[in-house]
Amino acid sequence: MIFKKYLPLVVPVLAALIFNLFYNWPVVFRLPFFCTLASTLFFAVILTRNRWIFALSYPLLLIPSALASYFCSRYGVPISANITAAMMETTAEEAQEFITVELILWVLLAGLLAAAIVAANFYVKKRWPLRRNPYHEVFLFCAAVSVFLLQMDVPEEMARFGVITLFAGALSYIAFKQLNWRLKAEWIPGVLKFVGLLSLFILSISTTSQQRKALPLNAVHQVKRYYESMARINEAIASRKDLAKRRSSFDEKRGESLKVVLIIGESARGDHFSLNGYDRETNPLLAQRTNLISFKKAKARSAATRIAVPNILTRAKTSRAKKLGRETSFISLFKKHDFHTVWLSMNAVFGTHNITVSTYAQNADTVYFKRNYEAEYERQKDGFLLPPYRGFLEKHKNEKQLLMLHTQGSHWRFDLRYPPQFEIFKPAGKLSSSAARNDPATLINCYDNTILFTDYFINEVITPLEDEKALVIYVSDHGESLGEDGVHGHSQDDRPEQRHIPLIVWGSEKYVAQYPDEFRNLERHAEKKVSHDHIFHSILGCTGFSSAVIDHSLNLCR
Known about the structure:
alpha/beta; seven-stranded mixed sheet; two-stranded antiparallel sheet; 13 strands
């Protein structure tokens, strides 16, 4: 009889244990386990009060959490706002590169577990319904609101105070009604239940910052953070200030027919460039170039493309991140002074790399994205950018030009990023969609082949400019983890290998002749610690612009 009475508790307990033992196992022993279990259990108790709400909400929590836990364990990445952004903004083709049989089975298992738990809740409720106590319902409702808002990190202290006041008021009311100031044996079980729920509530709101690292709370919290960041960015874009309206000048005499090229790499690590001391010859062509400078200590602003690329293009430096999206890029100033501007990208307009990037790219006179190149996905390589690039150089030969090339570079999957003739480091071949499942040597060989192809690509960009007055800058958006500490991929700002990037500058003979002081200063700063913060100010400062928007402490040509 006692077993039947408490059988309904089995469903929420199982629901909570699934999250904490199956999907939080990589972090379960590094968190206050009983607090995270209590928090999950508290929500499960509330949800199971209504069979249909539970049937709808539990699978919606369980299946995405299973997907998140797979990537947490296989790639060694925590769920964060940047990871959430990558999932939200990715294209179908990019997503396919991560799909494995193991992933599908893992998600199917989650679906079956969800179905079994939901079915059990219907069965238990039908056979042994819980006797509803209106006071408990009030308690659960107020406590649920309190826990939810506290977990969501409500910033306003008044809101937190209001929630606690609401809960305290409901608590006092229930206590008064439950005890009724009479010492009767009947109220003892009620008080015990009440104390149990109160203890669960207290555990649920303790160490909330640690609980947000566990599923499903972490996924919900990071989705909230992602949408908050997008709201801030969209608000900034809506009121964006045009830098072209700021006072500026350009040295027309020195800059006549000047060609400025910015190549934005993808996922390239600075320590895998032989120009920077890597023990493999990954830059055989660039090593032969004169007037080429490699900044060996360059650092990315962020390990996420959606933040790093806008930082390259604008004044939103690391210490002034709030400027992200609030101003136009240097493209505005180049256009103001009659440069023909071109943006060529191997990425999709609404892909991972372009939600916050495309708004800047669209400011160029001519814009090409992946949709402009007619080829199936697996054949699309960065070499597709070269024919239109050469075409624009020829078409506007006697004009000032700013050309920006946004590449796929060394983005996962590495084996799809280079043509067969660049498979120099072996064994290589086709990689598994799960980075962690590949042989480490094969994984690094394929990655180094992408750097070798990048060397070729940059060299091909430079070649038609040899007899022009030209400046070429190559910089990667971020690096990539290749299994260090079990971590793969990017979007984790605390990983040093994801922040160490290549930064290479080349000047033609005519450029060096016209801008000798600027080029000499570039060489002088080659061993300096630099970052994305320097790009905006240097690309303007190195080409003869004068403006109050240029911070000369970040101008590498000064």
